[in-house]
């Protein structure tokens, strides 16, 4: 590799992506640009010449465009885009009294920000001599119908559809959607909260049981895979939805 790859990450303030950022910096010698609504102390602790932290609300189109332009101005390249920014709320039933505005706010982050980010980064990704790559951080919810997760289920299904379509429309850019597994994150803690039980019904207990069974993944476990895919994802995975522990992902797992 003639130079360090330049990777943009959205939603980087979350714990899993602090660890993912460290993997990119240390294991892959990448230059990393993080986009997040808040710049946490954890991200500040990673400060280096190879890390640019930008405060950006991904639901704000002009803020995303500005952040991508700053990346190009500073580093002249974009080689990878990791789309992780997402919200879970509202936890609701399709037929309840949750206002449609709450669904629209959800889709602004989980779907429309993907389109904005991809459109902004595509010209640079097409020109990358390292091979442009986009990793859509998806979920098993994309292919399930978990009660109480209507917006989230639908938005992750839309994400996977965007990935498949992009792979057909942009064959020179590798696009892959990844299911990171059931990870010990703030989002999972919110799901286990008793306030989620009403919307989720009987399925709520299964999420509580993951803690008792010790089956939650540490954030760094899928983090290594996401980092590896953002730099070295093979062409034959473009358009695919893969699990973090599939055989095709094993080369990227931490030893």
UniProtKB/TrEMBL annotation:
Source organism superkingdom: Eukaryota
Family the entry assigns: Belongs to the short-chain dehydrogenases/reductases (SDR) family.
Protein name as annotated: Short-chain dehydrogenase
Lineage, opening ranks: Eukaryota, Fungi, Dikarya, Basidiomycota, Agaricomycotina
GO molecular function, one term: oxidoreductase activity, acting on NAD(P)H, oxygen as acceptor
Matching InterPro entries: NAD(P)-bd_dom_sf, Sc_DH/Rdtase_CS, SDR_fam
Pfam families in alphabetical order: adh_short
Keywords of the record: NADP, Oxidoreductase
Leader peptide range in chain numbering: none
Species annotation: Lentinula detonsa
Gene3D superfamilies: NAD(P)-binding Rossmann-like Domain (3.40.50.720)
PANTHER family: BENZIL REDUCTASE, BENZIL REDUCTASE ((S)-BENZOIN FORMING) IRC24
């Amino acid at each position: 590799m003639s130079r360090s790859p330049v990777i943009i990450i959205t939603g980087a303030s979350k714990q899993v992506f602090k660890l993912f950022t460290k993997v990119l910096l240390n294991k892959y010698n990448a230059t990393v640009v993080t986009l997040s609504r808040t710049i946490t102390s954890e991200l500040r602790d990673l400060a280096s010449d190879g890390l640019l932290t930008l405060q950006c609300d991904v639901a704000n189109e002009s803020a995303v465009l500005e952040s991508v332009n700053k990346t190009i101005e500073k580093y002249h390249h974009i080689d990878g885009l990791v789309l992780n920014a997402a919200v879970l709320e509202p936890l609701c039933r399709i037929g309840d009294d949750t206002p449609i505005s709450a669904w629209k706010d959800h889709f602004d982050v989980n779907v429309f920000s993907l389109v904005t980010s991809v459109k902004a980064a595509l010209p640079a990704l097409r020109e990358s001599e390292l091979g442009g790559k986009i990793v859509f951080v998806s979920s098993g919810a994309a292919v399930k119908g978990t009660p109480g997760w209507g917006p989230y289920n639908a938005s992750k299904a839309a994400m996977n559809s965007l990935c498949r379509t992009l792979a057909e429309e942009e064959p020179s850019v590798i696009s892959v959607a990844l299911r990171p597994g059931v990870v010990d994150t703030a989002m999972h803690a919110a799901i286990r909260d008793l306030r989620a039980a009403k919307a989720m019904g009987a399925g709520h207990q299964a999420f509580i049981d993951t803690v008792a069974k010790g089956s939650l993944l540490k954030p760094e476990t899928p983090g290594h895979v996401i980092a590896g895919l953002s730099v070295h994802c093979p062409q034959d995975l473009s358009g695919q939805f893969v699990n973090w522990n599939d055989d095709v992902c094993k080369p990227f797992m931490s030893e």
